[in-house]
Structures are given as C-alpha cells and as structure tokens.
UniProtKB/TrEMBL annotation, chain A:
Name this protein carries in UniProt: Sugar ABC transporter permease
Keywords for this protein: Cell membrane, Membrane, Transmembrane, Transmembrane helix, Transport
Pfam families: BPD_transp_1
Cellular localisation: Cell membrane
GO BP annotations, alphabetical order: transmembrane transport
Domain ABC transmembrane type-1 residue range list: 56-271
PANTHER family: ABC TRANSPORTER PERMEASE PROTEIN (PTHR30193), DIACETYLCHITOBIOSE UPTAKE SYSTEM PERMEASE PROTEIN NGCF (PTHR30193:SF41)
The organism of origin for this protein: Nakamurella endophytica
Family affiliation: Belongs to the binding-protein-dependent transport system permease family.
Length: 279, 274
C-alpha cells in the first residue's frame, strides 16, 4: 500500500510511455493523421540509413571523451593528490571541481561554444603558444566538432570522477602502500597493483554514470552544434527529438528511442555485473 | 621521504591545473559579459570600460524575475511529492517487504538507466491528452515519475539499514503501520531525505529536455529550458549572452555554495547508489 502512489506515477509516466514507444515504433505515423502498421521496417531504416546509424557511432565515440578520458585522468589526478587529500587545498578543490556538475549542462554548452569560437579563449591560447596555424572554429569544423563536443563533456565529468575515486582511495588501508614501498614498488607499480584493483567498485560507478551521459547526451549538443555541421555531431537523443517534433516521423523516432534504450542496457549491465560481482 | 615530497608537489601542481581548467570557463564568461554589448571581444580580455549594466539588461531581457519564480514553482511541485512518495515506497520495499517486492523493485530500478529521450515522444502525446501541454504540470508530473526510480532506490537503501527491532517494539505498543512510519521512521530518515531533496532540486532546476518539448512559453519553463530560448534570441550578442548565462546559473551556484558540504556528500553518494 505504501508503494502504491509511487508505483502509480512510475507506471503512468515511465512504463506506459515505454510501451507506447515500442508500439509507435511499429507504425508509420506523422503525429496527427492515421497511422499504418509497418512492422519492423522502422528498425530496418535505422540500421540501413547512414544518417541514422551514424548517430549511434557518434554516441560511442563520445564515450571516449565523456567516460574514458575523465576516468583515466581522474585516476591519475586522484592518486597524485591522495597524499595531500587532507590539506586545505584539497578541501577547496572539492568545491571547485564540483561546479561543472552543479550548473545546467546548457550553461556549460553556451560557455564552451564561446570558448571554442574563432575569437574564443582556446584559439587565443593556441596563438599565444605559436600554434596560430591550427586555430579554427572548433565546433563548426567537420573534423573537430565531435571531439570539441567531447571536450565539453569531459570538462563536466572529470571533477566528479576525481572526487569519487579519491573518496574510494581514502578507504584503502595505508599499510598496504607502506609495505609496497618497503618491497621497492614505485608509484606506477603501486598504482597498478593496489589502487586500481581496490577501486573496482568506484571505477564501475564512474564508468556507468559517464557512459549513460555519453549515450544519452542531448543538452550540450543541442546548445553547441545542433548536430552540425552537416550531421557530424548528431547523436541518437537529438535525432529522436528532431524526428519526432520537427520531421513528424514518430515511428522512426520511436524505433531509434527503443534502440537507444536497449543500447544503454546492453552497455551498462555488463559493467555493473563486472564491477559489483565480488563486492 | 624525498620521493614522497616530490610526489606531493606533483599532486599539488596537478590539482591546481585541474582547478584552473575548471574555473577558466567561468572567468571567461564573466569577463566577456563586461564588454560592450554587441561587440565581439576576443577570448580573455578585460574591457577598457566594464559594462556592469549588462547584467541588468540581461536580467530584463531574459525576464529573470519571472523565470526564477517559474523554476521555484516547478521545484515546489516536484520535490515534496517525490520525497513523500519515494519515502513511502522506500519504506515498503526496504522495511515492510510485502510479497513480490523483489520483482517490483527490480522493475523500478531498471528505470534508472532510462534515457529521457527514450520516452519523450509518447510523453508529449500523453501530456497533450491530459490537456496539460504548456502548463508547468507538464514538467512537474512526468519528472516525479521519471525521478521515482532514484527516489525509491535512495530511500530503500536507508530503510534496509534500519533495525527491525525498532518496529517490533512500536507494534507491541499498539502502533499501526502508518503510525510506525510517521512517528518513528520518518523522523529517523531525515538525513537521507534532505540529501535526496538536494539532488532532486538540482536535477529539476537543470532539466532541459522536458522543458523545451512540453512547454513552449519560456516563462513557464525551468531555468535551464529558458536559457535555451535566451540563446536563440540573443545568440549573436555575445556579451549579453554571457551575462544572461551567468545570471541563469547563479541561483544553483548560490544554493550550492551555501549547502556545499551536504551537496558534495549527496552527489557522491548519489552516483554510487545510482
């Protein structure tokens, strides 16, 4: 009885739309007129139309920036500051590093759009160190737009990852490090043999959170590039939005939505299973 | 000892570097906002005559007063209802454990991985059929449902850790389940509830997708949703856009700085549990 109202909200605003998405995905519908049953052909379209399946590839490429870079850098930084984690500077850094998590992603998008523009800070810095040759409108260039969007995501996630991993490290017994030192292990060996294995669960959390944010990215890209130039930064989340609400192809949009949800589950469940197994 | 001092120096340098990278975008935003409106300032440069008035102009242009009020109304709708229902459900799953709770809980928790884009299309038609399109309820009601998996998970984690003796003692004294919940368990759950409140506030305030799809009028959206419209309207006036963005992210920053300890703890725990 206590769970009933919560379950009601969940059923009406999550489960029902979920089933409707699956249902819509089997029809051709413009959102207004009558719909026609088309079976699985919307799914066929996703995997045959390059404009659509490329969005999924982009989402995977974003995992490198949203997930891999923050987790690896987070690990490096966290283990470098492990020793000074009680100092004043580390306390201040907790606040500072969290700022990108607190502001709306849209604001991060606007800020970085400006940083990446022709007259923005990124180009200014590059010119200052003698790299005027590579300056460009980073978000407007077919080759650099997706990595540039990725950098925005990395900027948002790195603080969270660093602090999560640092919190995990504080639970490791310092005696382990001491005895490793005694046995002549250097910092690299220490990192590989003690830190990383002990942080299995925290790494799992970082990877899960950031991978979902990469696959389901929307806000940053909507604001900074709108999928462009051309189709070069289009991701599934944004494509669903355009298909459903501008192109009025509700069926295809829903099929892509189902594909996205399945994709997230397929990627996340093994990560969860791998990192929680032994805990 | 020498190695460890060198390592701690390296640590400090890395940490400072990371903080600079984190803060630099905010600094640029601020400096650019002070340039005369309509100009194209270059990167990071202090203007010859700082235009503090830009913030005032952005405040009026973005209709900030109304936006703040709108976001507050939306938060006031989402957070209390989510807290109440989430706590009740968490109590049911974590403490009462009625038959079949495992299966139902699993179905709820699977919702944690759900990208909102996955259900946004049917949500639009559903909200339209309810006649709620372009009202704040169009954001409030779906968000309560979409945040429910997390709220339930969070509160269940709290109630699982509560000793069963507590309830037995109360039941011996003749308390029914509702009294048990309200008199004993809710007061004890206060820390968990307040952390959840912080997270829900933040996610509601920053919600973008639902705001732009379900509400056309920026003045009835969340802060983040309104920022999208502001960019569309003033996107070419960079100093004004920067001033507007700063204003729009100020409220969360202020709340964050006031409650930062709780915030950091809640966010760290939140991602571990999620």
């Amino acid at each position: 009885m206590f769970a009933a109202p919560a379950l009601l909200f969940y059923a009406v605003f999550v489960l029902r739309p979920l089933f409707l998405t699956i249902q819509f995905s089997l029809y051709k519908w413009n959102g207004i007129g009558p719909s026609t049953w088309v079976g699985l052909s919307n799914y066929g379209k996703i995997f045959s139309d390059p404009d659509l399946y490329v969005t999924i590839l982009h989402a995977f490429e974003l995992i490198i920036y949203f997930s891999l870079v923050p987790v690896v850098l987070g690990l490096v930084v966290a283990s470098a500051i492990r020793r000074i984690s009680q100092s004043r500077m580390a306390v201040v850094s907790r606040t500072v590093l969290f700022l990108p998590q607190v502001i709306p992603l849209v604001a991060a998008g606007i800020t970085w759009t400006w940083l990446f523009s022709t007259t923005g800070l990124v180009n200014q810095l590059l010119s200052a160190i003698g790299l005027r040759g590579v300056t460009r409108a980073w978000l407007g260039d077919f080759d650099t737009a997706l990595p540039a969007v990725g950098v925005i995501g990395a900027w948002v996630q790195i603080g969270l990852c660093t602090l999560l991993l640092l919190a995990g490290m504080s639970k490791i017994d310092p005696a382990l490090y001491e005895s490793a030192r005694m046995d002549g292990a250097g910092p690299v060996r220490e990192f590989r043999s003690i830190t990383v294995p002990a942080l299995r669960q925290e790494i799992g959390v970082c990877v899960t959170v950031t991978v979902i944010s990469a696959l389901a990215s929307f806000d940053i890209i909507y604001i900074s590039t709108q999928g462009g130039p051309g189709n070069s930064t289009m991701v599934p989340g944004l494509e669903i939005f355009y298909l459903a609400f501008s192109d009025r192809q509700v069926g295809v949009a829903s099929a892509l939505a189902v594909a996205l949800m399945v994709l997230v589950l397929v990627v996340i469940l093994p990560i969860q299973w791998l990192t929680r197994e032994q805990s | 000892m020498i190695t460890s001092r060198r390592e701690s120096l390296l640590g400090r340098v890395l940490l400072i570097l990371l903080m600079v990278v984190t803060l630099l975008p905010f600094v640029t935003l601020f400096v650019t906002a002070l340039h005369p409106s309509g100009t194209y300032p270059s990167g990071l440069s202090w203007p010859s005559s700082p235009q503090w008035g830009n913030f005032g102009r952005a405040f009026t242009a973005a209709n900030m007063g109304q936006l703040l009020w709108s976001s507050v109304l939306i938060v006031a709708g989402v957070v209390p209802i989510s807290l109440l229902l989430g706590t009740m459900a968490g109590f049911a799953f974590g403490h009462l454990r009625m038959p079949g709770h495992r299966i139902v809980y699993l179905v709820v928790v699977l919702g944690l991985t759900l990208p909102f884009e996955g259900v946004i299309t049917p949500l639009y038609y559903q909200v339209r059929d309810f006649g709620l399109l372009n009202t704040r309820w169009a954001i409030i009601l779906p968000l309560i449902g979409l945040f429910m998996p997390f709220s339930v998970l969070w509160m269940r984690a709290h109630f699982v850790g509560m000793p069963g003796d507590l309830s037995e003692a109360a039941q011996v004294d003749g308390a029914n389940t509702w009294q048990l919940f309200v008199r004993i368990h809710v007061p004890l759950a206060r820390p968990a509830v307040s952390s959840l409140a912080i997270l829900l506030f933040l996610w509601t305030w920053n919600q973008f997708l639902l705001a732009i799809v379900l509400v056309d009028d920026p003045a009835k959206r969340t802060m983040a949703g309104a920022l999208g419209a502001f960019q569309g309207q003033w996107g070419t006036d960079i100093p004004l856009l920067c001033a507007g963005s700063l204003l729009i992210l100020t409220p969360t920053l202020v709340v964050f700085l006031i409650f930062q300890r709780r915030f950091v703890a809640a966010l760290l725990q939140g991602s571990v549990k999620g």
